[in-house]
Amino acid sequence: MLPVRSRGPSPKRPALFGSASFDPSDATHPEENHPVLCQGRVAVVTGAASGIGAAAARAFAALGMKVAIADLPSSSDKLQSLGKELVNVVGEANVLVVPTDVSVYEEVCKFRETVFEAWSEVGILLNNAGVDGGPDGKRGTSWEGLDAWHHVFNVNVFGIVNVQQAFIPAMLYQENPAMVINTGSKQGITNPPGNTAYNATKAAIKSLTEGLAHELRTKADAHGTARITAHLFVPGWTFTGLTGASAGGEKPAGAWSADETVKYMLSRVAAGDFYVVCPDNETTPEADQLRIMWAAADVAQGRPALSRWHRDYKALFEEYMREGHALQVKVAAENKNK
Ligand SMILES: NC(=O)c1ccc[n+]([C@@H]2O[C@H](COP(=O)([O-])OP(=O)(O)OC[C@H]3O[C@@H](n4cnc5c(N)ncnc54)[C@H](O)[C@@H]3O)[C@@H](O)[C@H]2O)c1
């Protein structure tokens, strides 16, 4: 069973399959001369005290942007020390350190006030704060751990909703372009078993970010004024606090560093992509593409839920991946020879 038919490349519809996995050191830099990712614009990052958020804040400062960083008050020390590091790059007037719990709307509004009082605009709003379990780190199952469910939804989903509701109305008045980048996960797209509550939050983030993109686009069509784009940032396996980095130790070979993931994300949002699905050293873009199409086909073809992990479908899934990869290689070779 093949996932798609090759219709050949066209200017509007580029070849379906890329030819090789992404090497971050080869990334092009469309963010150079970009109207948002540039010196003097403002970047706002939640969950900035560690991992991907901290790497993004450093990357924005390296571009000469003003940077406002937020994280839980309990992570204040790490946030302050990142703030000092950023001050050394862009200067004190261009850094705001604002301990903020994104799950509390009033705190998010105060964060917005601080940013707009200082700089009167936002260029990039990176909704990055996220957790994968309850306040005690424990995960729920589908019928246990109600507190963990509430916590993971309050941070991952309502954290983003709070930030969107607090910041976007003010950003709509800006004349210059801006971006909202929401951090999802492959777990919200292919839904691997193991942490259903986290997966459900990331599926909600996909849905709410797609809706946001459409609403912003429709507003722009109607009034010709809104210049805000939305982007769904889907990190691959990245070595951070969420995936064991806080315990110390070496980055596993299969994972990307947070810097690599951020570099890839910036190159894709600067190029205008809505879906930014990052690979890592273990999973190629081609493998992601096949897995995503298999998950969508569960619904379209009426297969059992999560058939990829269903014993009756194991052999079929493996065959699909083998044939899909073979087709990808063939299409890539044909495209190369054109
Ligand atoms: N690391 C990965 O492999 C991976 C993969 C897919 C998606 N993600 C997503 O990337 C984002 C960043 O995670 P990370 O991997 O860098 O992990 P991380 O734990 O290093 O960073 C998450 C940050 O969010 C902060 N945070 C938690 N609750 C908060 C709250 N209520 N208010 C403000 N800040 C809060 C934490 O204190 C932490 O600093 C998350 O949304 C995560 O779901 C990560």
UniProtKB/TrEMBL annotation:
Protein name in the entry: NAD(P)-binding protein
Family assignment from sequence similarity: Belongs to the short-chain dehydrogenases/reductases (SDR) family.
SUPFAM superfamilies cross-referenced by the UniProt entry: NAD(P)-binding Rossmann-fold domains
Pfam families tied to this protein: adh_short
A GO term for molecular function: oxidoreductase activity, acting on NAD(P)H, oxygen as acceptor
Keyword Oxidoreductase annotated: yes
Coiled coil: none
Keyword line: NADP, Oxidoreductase
Originating organism: Mycena indigotica
Matching InterPro entries: NAD(P)-bd_dom_sf, Sc_DH/Rdtase_CS, SDR_fam
Organism lineage: Eukaryota, Fungi, Dikarya, Basidiomycota, Agaricomycotina
Region feature (Disordered): 1-33
